[in-house]
Amino acid sequence: MSEQRNTELGDFLRSRRAALTPAETGVPTYGTARRVPGLRREEVAQLAGVSVNYYTRIEQGESHQMSDSVMEAIANALRLDESERTHLLRLAWPAQVMRREAGPEMVRDSVLALVEGSIDQAAIIVGRRTDLLGGNRLGFALLGIDRDARPNLTKHMFLEPTMRDLMPDWERQARNAASYLRMATGELTDDPKLAELIGDLSIHSPEFARIWASHPVAECLHSVREYDHPLVGRLTLNEESLRMPDDSGQRIIFSGAEPGSPSAERLKLLDSLVS
């Protein structure tokens, strides 16, 4: 396990125990003053049924032989959700993570044809580092991105001022973007391009640095997004994210409106304006 991974594992565990209170987990405090936010190491160890010394070594990235049962016990003690458990596994057992090539991504012609031929819904293809790899006409129009451009969508979210106007709940969507990027760090182990992306964002966006420091982790599978589009006004769209079955790390994201809704009519209007 690399030094960077040791740090990531410890930082992640500390962020999760700091987010829990003794009251949430039933840990007695006996009225004593607490000098650390959230749970102490010994309290997590108690909840997980392991020794304090052993848990400390895990949090410091020194333990290389964590069993399934210990992993599950720690995840339960910290009340991790499914995405967080997956991220913990990838950090603790990096040898089991499929390493992906760090080179440029290619999209199959058949996938591009599928997305570009989609009607009534905005569709985009997002790469393993959240690069925009393709999309249909409506997908580019929804995000206000030129069809010849291929920006990184996380950079676009944090560094492009128009995104704050486009998304009324920008803070939540920005956190979602950072959460998915954190998931990618577990898949793209020691990827210099991903590290460069995170470094650039941390330097140029105080908001990203703040959110990233809290170690958010989430898989983006489906959601409801609000848009305040400059051409057609308010849109409420159902978003479905489909991972490519070949496990390339790429996703197709479809965004559509409820049939017959005002958002559906506005989405049709947007399509006609950019046709």
TrEMBL record:
Pfam families xrefs: HTH_31 (PF13560), MLTR_LBD (PF17765)
Superkingdom field: Bacteria
HTH cro/C1-type domain residues: 38-85
Coiled-coil regions, chain positions: none
InterPro entries: Cro/C1-type_HTH (IPR001387), Lambda_DNA-bd_dom_sf (IPR010982), MLTR_LBD (IPR041413)
GO molecular function terms attached to this record: DNA binding
UniProt protein name: Helix-turn-helix transcriptional regulator
Organism annotation: Amycolatopsis carbonis
